[in-house]
Design a protein that fits this description.
By secondary structure, this protein is mostly helical. The chain is built from 19 helices and 7 strands. Strands 1-2-7-4-3 form a 5-stranded mixed β-sheet. Bound molecules: protoporphyrin IX containing FE. Keywords: Heme, Iron, Metal-binding.
Length: 447
């Protein structure tokens, strides 16, 4: 009798599993799409985890696409695509493909979603309009003071380190963390000073470490929230907290103290016309203070990682290309070493070096998941039902062999007019240049 009580439920579970197995493999509307692995229709976690852990998923998937075509099923309900036409449809200005809330929800700070993590289209476009008053090409001159001051502090710190070898990635990280924090909070976080004294600022270091795992964790949202909950329970029970949680708390305290400073009715500084800061500008435009704080905090991640990785790559590449470097220096000499964006953009070699650096670094290497809207959609001749999560990564297009011959080589001259190229080749190059993605959720910091 006892054995029967145990066996029946087990049999029921087994039957349900076999039924679901047959359904997901042969009946599901995505079953016609080639699988990334035999395990993909069962779970993304099962086949992708090792590749995600090695940080290779965005390198491995394009190879699979070469063999299997523009669409690949990566999970029971997930599809990866590699096609510029589909990219333009999914990430368009009026796209009805929303950001996947399970993934973008991981980035929400203090329960106040910021532009990057807002998934509702109407709320997103309202926030984006509001932020546009600072993130606008015509307003870039307002940020010149912040840039010049921090670059000056950075070059002084570099001079002091001479002639020792400099770890360029860490140095650039410090520079960008100070620029973005000065812009966001009206005060530098102190990363350059900390780096110059031989220590990385823990708050910045942890942010870096977190960004290494965020691609992994955002690919497995359930795993991420389970780990987070487990740590918070452990902390409540034993008082133990990880090194990164402690540093994140330190950053939270620092950012909250900045908000208090900026909103203190008696002591708050007035917005400086030469050094506007994000939090005060947003609060003056009636964005609630907690949301303004969340935006500034959230910005520090994508604003620092991407720009510092790109700058470090460019410096390294130019250091290995002496002829280009000396031509660039002579162009800047001739232009009188300007600091305003308009004059800098006129220096063709500088423009090319930066554009190629952004392409070659491919700092935004993540997949950008979107949800297929109601009614489903036909892509590459296949029907994808509503709710399917589809994604692609900008770096695949930046490394496309046809658009960028020898894509793994840093070659700024591909952006100069002195390389003979057909109009078709130029169009292909420009079309595939999507480092900031496209459409209504393209990078707001692209200016
Ligand atoms: C080389 C530098 C950068 C690259 C390659 C880059 C790349 C990207 C990409 C590909 C996206 C789209 C992400 C998605 O759809 O999920 C994005 C969004 C975003 N980026 Fe950047 N980014 C850079 C610099 C910056 C900077 C400097 C800031 C701010 C100071 C910034 C703030 C943001 C924000 C707030 C979003 C969300 C936009 C929205 O949803 O409307 N980024 N970025």
């Amino acid at each position: 009798m006892f054995v029967l009580i145990l066996v029946w439920p087990l049999c029921l579970v087994l039957v349900c599993f076999i039924a679901w197995f047959c359904y997901t493999f042969w009946v599901h509307q995505l079953s016609e799409i080639p699988n990334a692995s035999i395990l993909a229709p069962i779970s993304r976690l099962l086949w992708a985890l090792p590749s995600e852990c090695r940080g290779r998923i965005t390198l491995d998937l394009p190879r699979l696409h070469e063999q299997l075509g523009p669409l690949i099923r990566t999970g029971p309900n997930e599809v990866s695509f590699y096609s510029l036409d589909i990219y333009k449809t999914v990430y368009s200005v009026r796209s009805s493909f929303a950001k996947d809330p399970r993934v973008y929800g991981q980035f929400v700070q203090d329960s106040h979603p910021a532009l990057f993590s807002i998934t509702d289209a109407a709320e997103h476009s309202q926030r984006r309009r509001l932020m546009g008053q600072l993130f606008n090409y015509s307003k870039m001159y307002l940020l010149e003071g912040i840039m010049v001051e921090n670059v000056t502090a950075f070059t002084l710190a570099l001079e002091q380190q001479m002639p020792r070898a400099i770890e360029v990635v860490r140095a650039c990280r410090a520079l960008e963390a100070d620029i973005v924090s000065a812009f966001g909070f009206g005060q530098e976080i102190g990363a350059i000073a900390s780096w110059a004294s031989g220590k990385d600022l823990q708050m910045v270091k942890v942010n870096d470490e977190k960004s290494k795992t965020i691609a992994l964790l955002s690919g497995f949202p359930v795993l991420a929230s389970t780990l987070e909950r487990a740590e918070s329970i452990l902390c409540r029970m034993t008082g133990w907290e990880s090194h990164s949680t402690a540093a994140i708390k330190e950053f939270d305290q620092w950012s909250f103290s900045q908000l208090s400073r900026l909103t203190n009715p008696t002591k708050s500084p007035s917005i400086s016309p030469t050094h506007p800061n994000f939090i005060q500008t947003m609060i003056c435009s009636h964005l609630p203070a907690p949301s303004a704080l969340s935006e500034a905090k959230e910005m520090l991640g994508p604003g620092t990682d991407t720009t510092s990785a790109t700058l470090a790559h460019i410096l390294w590449a130019l250091a290995h290309d002496a002829p280009y470097q000396s031509e660039l220096v002579s162009d800047l000499d001739n232009a009188g070493w300007p600091t305003d964006i308009g004059s800098l953009e006129k220096v063709e070699r500088l423009r090319a070096a930066v554009k190629e650096g952004i392409r070659w670094t491919g700092a935004a290497a993540a997949m950008l998941p979107r949800v297929v809207p109601g009614g489903g959609v036909v892509l590459a001749g296949m029907f994808l039902p509503a709710g399917t999560v589809i994604s692609s990564s900008p770096i695949w297009y930046l490394r496309d062999k046809n658009a960028f011959p020898s894509p793994e080589i840093y070659r700024p001259s591909r952006w100069l007019n002195d390389e003979s190229r057909s109009p078709e080749a130029i169009k292909l190059r420009d079309d595939f240049y999507v480092p900031f993605s496209k459409g209504s959720s393209a990078c707001i910091g692209a200016q």
